[in-house]
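haha ok so turns out i had the wrong file open the whole time. this is the CORRECT one, sorry everyone. sequence first:
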Amino acid sequence: MEIEKIYEPQKTESRWSQFWLDSNLYRADPSAPPPVFSIVIPPPNVTGSLHMGHMLDHTIMDAAVRWHRMRGDNTLWLPGTDHAGIATQLMVERMLAEQGITRKQLGREEFERRVWEWKEKYGSRITDQMKHIGDSVDWSREQFTLSAELSPAVIEAFVRLYEKGLIYRGAYMVNWCPRCQTAISDLETVHQESQGSLWHIKYPISGTDRFLTVATTRPETMLGDTAVAINAKDARYFDLHGQTVRLPLMDREIPIVLDDMADPAFGSGAVKVTPAHDPNDFELGKRHNLPRIQVIDEQGHMTAQAGAYAGLDRFEARRRVVADLEKLGLLAKIEPHHLSIGRCDRCKTVIEPLVSTQWFLKTKPLAAKALEAAADGSIRFVPDNWNATYLNWMTNIRDWCISRQLWWGHRIPAWHCGDCREITVARTQVETCPKCGSANLEQDSDVLDTWFSSGLWPFSTLGWPNQTQDLATYYPTSVLITGFDILFFWVARMIMLGIELTGQVPFRQVHMHGLVRAGDGTKMSKTKGNVIDPLDITAKFGTDAVRVSLLIGVAAGTDIVYTEEKLTAARGFANKIWNASRLLFLNMDRSGVMPAVPEPGALVELEDRWIFNELHRTADGVNRAFENHRYHEVAETLWHFFWHDFCDWYLEIKKQRLVENSGLTNDWKNLLSVFASALKLLHPIMPFLTEELWSKLDQTTSISLERYPVAGVMDEAAGRQMAVLQKIITEARTQRANGNLGMKTLEGQLFVDEAAGPLVEAQAAVIDKLTNVKFTVQRENPLPGGFRVVLIAPAQDTAAQRVRLEKEIAQHQKLVADKDRQLQNEKFMQSAPAHIVESLRVKRAEYQEQLEKSRAALGGLA
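then structure:
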């Protein structure tokens, strides 16, 4: 059997990913019998490319999907991408800006055409990368959130929710991005901690020579103040009830109102009220029927109502307002103040709170049903600690602003009458106003928030609102696998919309995994320059090695710290599999065994009974780990089985029994059967390597369509006997290593008790071969541990070894004493950093351990 000497995944991976695509292996059949396993991919932004978070996400999903498929489940993994309204429009606008063009110059229709053109040219980048890493999705069902196939579902969802009174339109305070020129949700607003200032401004009290001092972090907004609030319980201001102040710079008289929002214990106890530019002030303004004066516009510039500051950028206006207040002697003081500044998640522009007419979705009624689904177990979070986070957010949820002032997205299906101002929401184009009969109608210019359409993803992609066979078979989906960072962006919204619109939960389980972090534990980001391109590391280490390194670190509730050391170890595991397979195939040629996957032979030899026992134990553990989303246990268990059980022990013993030109003996049947089962067990986490090796055994089918191994009848007695054999061999090897006795054949004595005697006699050839020691076996009772190994080294070797060990002992004693001096130095211990002290203690323990080993070896010589 021909197999390359060196494993080079770059030579095989592209071939197999193309094979999986061309052969259409993973197309789901809704008419196939149950059980059903279905999962949708969290649709990545069409603007993006794979990052390490995607790599982790897709690795877990692909492993789960391949496992279910090999179990025989009717499996669907549905792929697709999100149109990413703000991100895509921002990217195209930047591209146009390089040509000196704005979207408004193009007009809406032409701009949309340009974006679709961009999408067709660049939008397949991330799906091409998914194909490259071998995602076993059903590409025939690929979807796009803005496609013509999904638009009817979005319109139907909006209209149904509107008809139920859950969608409404009104003027409310929103987060406004002056750069993207749209409202964004609280979730799309990121908060950046920074050091700012708190300006204390004196407001003259009308008819007196007194001042009321207020403090603000945004002095430019004072130009829109319509009141100052004090607390009715604040004794300092009893006489000001019902009074007014003169608004500095604007010379406008505004009332002093009583409101609990003014905290007597904070600052001066008085607060300025700007209902048009602060969410808390907006609510206070409604309570006191205050006017709203907008002094900052949608571009972040001062409006005409800002008086002398009209037209200025908001931050330039701030500088001038402060300077003018100082000239007038109305600036009491400026003090440093720690701020949390809201910025647009996409373009990082500072958010401006503005009152804007928007479309909103009432979330309280939807959240109540979503909470009930979590409480009664209809949806289960894994790990379950996410339940508390989910319940807390759902309980305190606010209405969702679902409209965006963009041109790229699902346009809101509402028509405004230019004559009577009636708004008509409908599933199809409205030609005449149902109220006045006018044909002067215009569709709402806003589009829906991207997360609205992606909130329908688990069922819209299956054909909803039509009752399709896909929907009947695969909905609700079985599980959602995603990072915890989009729990509120997407997961919670899918649950709310799914239950409301279909009457069923969108998925039975939600597996929330951690994030992939940089080597120092920080979050990966482009601004920090610590982003890793997964395709770069798959090219270097191989996709399977990257997958294993991620899975082995993805313990529930933890993040993964990316290091090349982990990748190097995982590549070493892949090489181990390859080298063991190569040894197997070379011996097949030598023995005249044709490539095949035979049934197991008779389990006569101890190593056969033991390895099948371990195979069953491994299959049982791996299947349970998959079932419970414990993917790190899957990887760890399979690593141990193949490397240690199969390679280090079984293959080492079994290769002694393989005879030239023997044909398919009982030993070969067992060896090949175990090897084939090991490849099947490994396939979900290492698809490329296992497909390549499987093809050399069986060229008739893909390993991904084989049945996944399950546990059989256990042979615990074989496990106990093999454990004794392993201990004897390990002890002999340890003594050889500690005695620096090389690989020459030695003589030795093996003392065993009555219980171990028959086993040792039966396995004498194996023991001698694996230790390279010719043992004389003697019975001795009682014998603690059941056996004792004594190696007999040549006299000249013993003398030389004694000298070497004595030198080692002296060196180690000196190193231990040196560390002790440092650790016992009180001055050093008080001033040294904790990590330095800990490093010294670790080193001291290592030197002490080496010292004890050398002493034990010297004692063995005596």
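The mean pLDDT is 92.
again sry for the mixup
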